[in-house]
Design goal:
By secondary structure, the protein is mainly α. About 50% of the residues lie in helices and about 10% in strands. It contains 9 helices and 3 strands. α1 runs antiparallel to α2, α2 runs antiparallel to α3 and α2 packs across α6. The radius of gyration is 19 Å and the shape is globular.
């Protein structure tokens, strides 16, 4: 877009959003005490739900395709035995989530030609840094001024954290860690402040 001089991405996705959601569910599930066995059982079910929603022509068709995945046995594997599948469908099969799962950040990233700084915290459990920063870096390979940076000890909100757990966010008095602000400031000064 004309007039845009640079882009700073804070915890932005680089992978497909369906993959991001599977990674996020595993990391957060592990932190709240789910066993590897529980996570392993739930993952193919959620993957099938996400694929059903993502591949459907309309949100309504996606909801129905996802409903077919959520059999009583599947609901039990998710740890929701006896629950109504609509509880899962309401969360993952609406119009917004349908758009979300279909969104692929790579084509848009590949078109960016202005300087880019992509940051993520090492304790981010919502946008796991390793996979997402690698995907961003690959998508920006033709951009001569693209920087990816993983900031140690920071969570998804760029707060200094102990675990990165979502439940920890509200307990941290810090809004944004000084190192995140300093990193952005230094990057901007190097590019845009005349000496």
């Amino acid at each position: 877009l004309p007039g845009i001089a640079f882009l700073v991405m804070m915890a932005g996705p680089g992978t497909g959003l369906d993959q991001l959601m599977l990674s996020q569910r595993r990391l957060i599930g592990s932190q709240i005490g789910q066993s590897e066995l529980q996570l392993d059982r739930a993952e193919p079910i959620m993957k099938a739900v996400f694929e059903a929603v993502k591949n459907a022509a309309t949100p309504e068709a996606g909801r129905e395709a996802a409903r077919a995945v959520l059999t009583p046995a599947a609901m039990t594997m998710l740890g929701a035995g006896g629950a109504n599948p609509d509880t899962v469908l309401d969360q993952f099969a609406g119009p917004w989530f349908s758009y979300f799962l279909k969104y692929d950040p790579v084509p848009n990233l590949e078109r960016i030609k202005v300087p880019v700084l992509a940051l993520d915290g090492s304790l981010d459990r919502q946008v796991p840094p390793e996979a997402n920063l690698a995907a961003i870096k690959a998508a920006l390979a033709d951009n001569p001024d693209a920087t990816t940076w993983e900031l140690p000890g920071l969570n998804h909100l760029f707060q200094t954290a102990k675990t990165g757990a979502v439940g920890e966010y509200a307990d941290i008095p810090e809004t944004v860690a000084p190192i995140a602000l300093q990193t952005m400031g230094d990057w901007l000064v190097q590019r845009f402040v005349r000496k």
